[in-house]
Predict the 3D structure of the following.
Amino acid sequence: MSQINQFTITDAVKESFRTEEGSRFKFLLETFIDHLHDFTREVNMTHDEWMGMLNFLYDCGQISTPERHEFILLSDVLGLSALVDMINTRGGATEGSNLGPFYLDNAPVLELGADLARGREGTTLLVHGIVRDSLGNPLPGAIIDTWQADGSGTYPIQEVGQDKYDLRGKITADAQGRYYYTTVLPKPYTVPYDGPVGRLLRAGDRHAWRAAHLHYIIRAPGMRGITTELFFENTEYVDNDAVFGVRKSLIAKLEPVKRQEELAYTLEKRPDAKCRFDFVLAPEG
Ligand code: BEZ
Ligand code: FE
């Protein structure tokens, strides 16, 4: 140990932990130490930079509350959340994307064809498609759990006096795996930028806008559930979403509805526009 120098310290730190041989924890910890030390040596880190980095993390902790997790936001704007989503997407399944901070697991159950918007202003959008497996077989009974911002880019949960269960619901796919409902076309909104992550964005001349999106968790018995988002072609920020949530395969086309009679569904509300998206789930395991 007395022979320690800036190159031998990495092994010394790794060896100081008595972790189970061959365990995942050992692998994660040692790889992290390797990369952390390599990074520090590579940039020739100064004391000011080291303290600045630690103070930044401290500030992230200070501003975090049960409702605001600044470290997740940091992970989002650094593309780490997106990278983990990409790594964990199963071949053949719909690509994963951000869960975001506004999910509630007990959203109201809605009938097929229901209107999620309940009188909110904006473009009424029909969202429809099929939930199927990677071989193309429909998945009847699949649960489509959705939540979203409104026509001005606000989640009801963010607003005092609003019902936090507005603009969210759980819909069950029919015998052919079909799902359909109407809602209000959401608008883009900004991720919180009044804290340390906002400072980081400003320091790097980056904006805080998310492309308009609908959130989904899709589940079906025997299948691996997915958490994803749906975006819209040719809308603002779809090419530079602040949290790197957009994937080409998750961009749906918005089409005007000219003749209501052509729609194959019984709907609570007449839509102005429609978009189709099929969700594909891979088997569990
Ligand atoms: C969202 O999509 O709801 C979201 C994602 C990341 C940060 C903030 C909001
Ligand atoms: Fe969102």
